[in-house]
Amino acid sequence: MSDVLELTQELVRTETINPPGRESRAAMILAARLEAAGFEVERPPLADGRDNLVARLPGSGDGAALCMTGHLDTVPLGREQWEHDPLGADVDGERLHGRGSSDMKGGVAAIVIAAERVAALGRGEAGLELVLCAAEETGCEGAQALVEAGVLGNAGAVLVAEPTSNYPCVAHKGVVWLDASTTGRAAHGSMPHLGENAIFKLAPALAALERFDFGGPEHELLGKPTLSVGTVAGGMNINSVPDWATAGIDVRTVPGLEGDEVAARLGELVGDDVRLDRRVDLPPVSTDPSDPWVAEVFGVMEPLIGERPEPRGLAYFTDAAALTPAYGTPPTIICGPGDADQAHQTNESCAVELLEAAAEGFFEIARRWCRL
Q1: Inter-CA distances, 346 with 10, 96, 192, 301, Å
Q2: 145 and 219 together in one domain
Q3: Contact at 8 Å (CB) between 95 and 350?
Q4: Between the chain's N and C termini, which has fewer beta carbons within 10 Å?
Q5: Of 282, 304, 327, which marks where a domain is finished?
Q6: pTM, 2 dp
Q7: Residue 169 pLDDT class (50, 70, 90 cuts)
Q8: Cβ proximity of 161 and 337 under 8 Å
């Protein structure tokens, strides 16, 4: 059994479903390994039982480090029955099964195995900085807490091991999450004329949101912004006029569309009866495909994916939305062994072959960066 498969299995079996998270369980396992490999390790807490992990392997020179990053939390299991134990990390044929196998404990394992191999070669001219975050799935709170705490070092490039089937991508969308809410006046359900129905006040706004288009030109890699209503709730019971209603709005942004504009345009659309509160506002990430480091990473990954990479963007967001600006906007690549179409799915799995290829590719990328 390969080292990266074994570590991925250990992480899948270490339950870090968010909420509540409990990422400290995984952080402890990885901290012990990285300390043994010679890394300087910190575990800045996000909350009780919810540690981030920052591990540094200093270089001998003054050059910036390579940041390799991933998140430790996973989404819930859902209500469907799983074919395999979602926390069992079973290997069936050529695939590893379990929650987080693709998104993204396999990517985290590949980062750590690659970093251990680089450390075993000795001290290079440049160093490595591993940033393993809590609470990515609920809006990158862990990464944002690290930025606010000022614990990040100096990174000249960022590698994010989110699921891409090992295809190196140079951009991803940003995100704005908003809560749209209305208030009314409660009354008995048999006498609705005595109340004011908050759900009826919210409903026209939801219909308008379904038809809304941000317009403007498409981004060459990320396409158009998107809008989805993900949650709706309201009222206290079926036989009362609801005095409150709320909906969660998920907007994925592209360069040129910022959170203030999103809030302003949607505010005009839904009208004065609907209150909008911003919950998450993270920018898109986009790297110039002609950057020399991008070309180098493309060259490393080409034989591992069986084709010459072309510039691509991703619809989802990553912790790079918080980390890359904090590092001064260095080139950023999203590349990891998970299958993107497996993320958040019942019966999530990951190809063992992709795990092993990722560990090999990340090692070579890191070795070259450190000039070993």
Answers
A1: 20, 14, 41, 29
A2: no
A3: yes
A4: N
A5: 282
A6: 0.96
A7: very high
A8: yes
